C-alpha cells in the first residue's frame, strides 16, 4: 500500500505528521524518565548515588527510545494515523489514539522483557510514558483542530452577509441543473437559467409557466450573454462544462476553454455584477488514484484532463474570495439516478440499464472504489450551501456524498443483482486506474448535510424508467455526453430543442406542437482580436497552473 503513495502525498501529508509523532514519542519518554528520576531521588529514603542513578536512567532511556519510536510509528500507521484519522469525528479520533498508544506500550513491554530480554523496565516509567504520549499526541491534534477552527471563524467574521433571493444556474437545463432548478423554485428562490440547450429544453420546459423562472438561451462563454444573465443576481451556481473523462478527450482545446478559461471570465463578471455567492460544481476525480481515504485537505492528484481542468477552476474560484464575494467549491461524488435530462453514461445508470435490457453486465476492475451520490442529493447539497451563512462556506471546499455510498464496482454490481436476480455479471480488467474513497465528514459537521437516497433507490428508479418505456433506447447519443458531443461536429450551440428527448420524457405530448420557448436568444458573434488575445493569455495561464 505504501508503494502507491505519490511523492506529493508523502511529502506534504504523511511525512510532517510522521515526524511530529516521532518528536512526540521522544518527548513523552523523556518526560516519563525525568519524572520518574525526580520522584525516585526525592522519595528515596536512603542517601542515593545520584550519578549512578542518572547513568542508569540514561541507559534505559536510550535503550527504549529506538524501540518505542519504531514500534509507535508502525502501530500508528496500522491505526490509520497518516491516512484516515483526520477524517474521523473528534470523539472517535481520541478513542483511536488511546487504543494505538496503549497497544504501543503494551507490545513494547512484552518485546523488551520477553523477546529482546533487555531487562526489566520500571512499570512506573511505562505508565508515565503512556500518559505523556496520550497527552502530547492527543493534545497536539486537539489544539491544532481548535486553533484552525478559531482562526477560520475569526477570519470570516467580518464578511458581509446578504439575503439570497435571485439565483443564476449556469447549465440549469442539464442533468443536475434541471433537478436543482426545481428545488430552488420549491424553496422560494427566483431562478434564472443560462444554458445553450445543447441537449434541448425538455428538462426545463415545465418551468416556463412559472413567473419565478427565466430561461436565457445562450453560451456562457460569450461575455455579452454572461453580463446580461448577471443582472439582479445574488448567487451563481456554475454547473456548465464538458463533464466526464471521455467527453473531455474529444477536443482538449475546447475542454480547456469551456471548463477553465470561461470560468475565469465568469469570476470577473460576478465581481462586476456584485454577486454575493459563487458555487462551483467540481468532482472527486481531482483526487485521482489513491488507496487512502481522501478529505478536503488531501493533496489532489487528477489523472485526467477533466479532473485537471476542474482543479484549475477550483483554484481560481477560491482565489476570487473578497469580503463581498463568497466562493464555494463542491466536489461531487459519482452521480446516479434519473433526472429530467437523463444520462446513461454514468456507471450506475449505465449498468442498471444494461442489466434490465440485456440481462448481463461487465464489471471492469471490480475492486476499485468510487463514492456515489443521487442527483437529488446533489441538488440538496447546493441548496444547503446557499442557505448557509457566508462564514460557514466562504472560500471552502466540500466533498459531497456519503460514507455509506463509498462502494467498490463489484459491490455496485451486487446491488443491481439484488433487484435483478437473474443478472449475469462478468468480471474484467482494463487500464482505468481511478480508485478512491472519500470522506464527507466536513459537509456533515459544518452544514448538517446528509444524503437521503441510497444506491438501491437509484437502481430501482432507473429500472422502472427503462421497464415503463419512458426511455425507449438508453443507448441513444442524447443520453451520453461523449456520444452527443461526438456527433455535434464541433458545434456546441444546438438552437432547436431535441424532439427525440422530448418524445422520451413526455411521450403523451410527443405529437403536440412544442409551446413557444420563453427565452432570450443571444446570437453567437465572431471573436474580436482582443478576445482572441485574451483567450491566449488565459490558456497560457492555465498551462502554468496545471
Provide key terms for this protein.
alpha/beta, Rossmann fold, eight-stranded parallel beta sheet, about 15% strand, disordered C terminus
Explain what the structure shows.
With 546 residues, the chain is α/β, with parallel strands linked by helices. The protein folds into two domains: 2-156, no CATH class; 166-541, NAD(P)-binding Rossmann-like Domain (Rossmann fold, 3-Layer(aba) Sandwich), CATH 3.40.50.720. The chain is 51% helix and 14% strand. The protein has 18 helices and 15 strands. The protein has helices at residues 7-43, 50-78, 90-115, 123-156, 177-186, 223-230, 245-248, 252-273, 305-319, 347-358, 375-387, 390-393, 409-419, 441-447, 455-468, 481-486, 499-505, 529-545, and strands spanning 166-170, 190-195, 213-217, 235-238, 277-283, 289-294, 326-332, 334-336, 360-364, 369-374, 396-400, 406-408, 424-428, 435-438, 519-521. It has an eight-stranded parallel β-sheet with strand order 11-7-5-4-1-2-3-15, with helices on both faces. Strands 8-10-12 form a three-stranded mixed β-sheet. Helix 1 packs antiparallel against helix 2 (50-78), helix 2 (50-78) packs across helix 3 (90-115) and helix 10 crosses helix 13 (409-419). The longest helix is centred in the first third of the chain and has 37 residues, at 7-43. The protein starts with 6 loop residues before the first helix and ends with a helix. 42% of the residues are buried. Residues 153-160 and 492-546 have low confidence and may be disordered.
Amino acid at each position: 500500500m505504501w508503494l502507491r503513495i505519490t511523492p506529493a502525498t508523502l511529502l506534504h501529508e504523511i511525512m510532517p505528521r510522521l515526524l511530529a509523532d516521532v518528536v512526540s514519542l521522544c518527548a513523552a519518554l523523556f518526560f516519563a524518565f525525568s519524572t520518574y528520576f525526580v520522584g525516585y531521588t526525592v522519595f528515596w529514603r536512603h542517601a542515593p548515588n545520584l550519578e549512578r542513578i542518572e547513568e542508569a536512567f540514561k541507559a534505559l532511556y536510550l535503550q527504549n527510545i529506538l524501540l518505542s519510536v519504531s514500534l509507535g510509528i508502525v502501530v500508528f500507521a496500522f491505526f490509520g494515523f497518516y491516512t484516515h484519522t483526520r477524517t474521523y469525528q473528534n470523539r472517535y479520533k481520541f478513542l483511536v489514539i488511546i487504543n494505538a498508544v496503549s497497544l504501543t506500550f503494551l507490545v513494547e513491554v512484552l518485546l523488551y522483557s520477553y523477546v529482546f530480554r533487555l531487562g526489566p523496565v520500571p512499570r512506573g516509567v511505562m505508565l508515565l510514558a503512556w500518559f505523556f504520549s496520550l497527552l502530547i499526541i492527543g493534545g497536539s491534534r486537539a489544539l491544532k483542530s481548535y486553533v484552525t477552527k478559531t482562526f477560520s471563524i475569526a477570519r470570516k467574521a467580518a464578511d458581509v452577509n446578504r439575503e439570497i433571493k435571485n439565483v443564476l444556474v449556469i447549465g440549469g437545463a442539464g442533468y443536475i441543473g434541471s433537478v436543482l432548478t426545481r428545488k430552488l423554485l420549491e424553496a422560494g428562490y427566483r431562478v434564472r437559467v443560462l444554458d445553450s440547450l445543447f441537449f434541448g429544453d425538455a428538462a426545463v420546459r415545465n418551468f416556463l409557466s412559472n413567473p419565478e423562472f427565466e430561461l436565457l438561451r445562450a453560451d456562457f462563454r460569450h461575455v455579452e450573454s454572461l453580463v446580461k444573465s448577471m443582472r439582479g443576481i445574488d448567487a451563481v451556481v456554475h454547473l456548465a462544462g464538458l463533464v466526464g473523462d471521455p467527453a473531455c478527450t474529444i477536443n482538449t482545446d475546447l475542454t480547456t476553454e469551456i471548463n477553465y478559461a470561461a470560468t475565469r471570465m465568469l469570476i470577473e463578471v460576478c465581481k462586476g455584477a456584485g454577486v454575493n455567492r459563487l458555487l462551483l460544481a467540481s468532482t472527486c476525480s481531482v483526487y485521482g488514484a489513491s488507496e487512502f481515504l481522501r478529505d478536503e485537505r488531501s493533496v489532489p492528484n487528477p489523472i485526467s484532463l477533466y479532473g485537471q481542468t476542474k482543479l484549475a477552476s477550483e483554484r481560481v474560484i477560491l482565489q476570487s474570495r473578497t469580503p463581498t464575494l463568497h466562493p464555494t467549491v463542491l466536489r461531487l461524488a459519482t452521480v446516479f439516478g434519473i433526472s429530467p435530462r437523463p444520462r446513461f453514461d454514468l456507471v450506475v445508470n449505465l449498468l442498471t440499464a444494461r442489466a434490465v435490457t440485456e440481462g448481463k453486465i461487465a464489471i471492469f476492475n471490480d475492486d476499485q472504489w468510487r463514492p456515489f451520490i443521487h442527483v437529488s442529493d446533489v441538488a440538496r447539497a447546493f441548496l444547503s450551501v446557499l442557505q448557509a451563512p457566508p462564514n460557514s462556506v466562504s472560500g471552502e471546499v466540500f466533498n459531497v456524498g456519503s460514507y455509506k455510498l463509498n462502494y467498490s464496482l463489484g459491490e455496485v454490481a451486487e446491488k443491481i443483482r439484488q433487484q435483478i436476480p437473474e443478472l449475469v455479471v462478468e468480471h474484467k480488467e482494463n487500464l482505468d486506474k481511478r480508485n478512491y474513497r472519500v470522506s464527507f465528514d466536513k459537509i456533515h459537521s459544518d452544514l448538517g448535510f446528509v444524503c437521503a437516497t441510497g444506491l438501491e433507490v437509484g437502481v430501482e428508479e432507473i429500472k422502472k424508467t427503462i421497464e415503463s418505456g419512458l426511455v425507449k433506447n438508453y443507448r441513444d447519443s442524447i443520453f451520453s455526453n461523449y456520444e452527443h458531443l461526438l456527433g455535434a461536429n464541433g458545434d456546441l450551440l444546438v438552437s432547436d430543442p431535441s424532439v427525440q428527448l422530448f418524445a422520451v420524457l413526455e411521450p403523451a405530448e410527443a405529437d403536440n406542437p412544442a409551446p413557444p420557448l420563453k427565452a432570450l436568444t443571444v446570437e453567437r458573434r465572431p471573436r474580436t482580436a482582443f478576445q482572441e488575445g485574451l483567450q491566449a493569455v488565459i490558456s497560457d495561464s492555465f498551462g502554468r497552473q496545471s
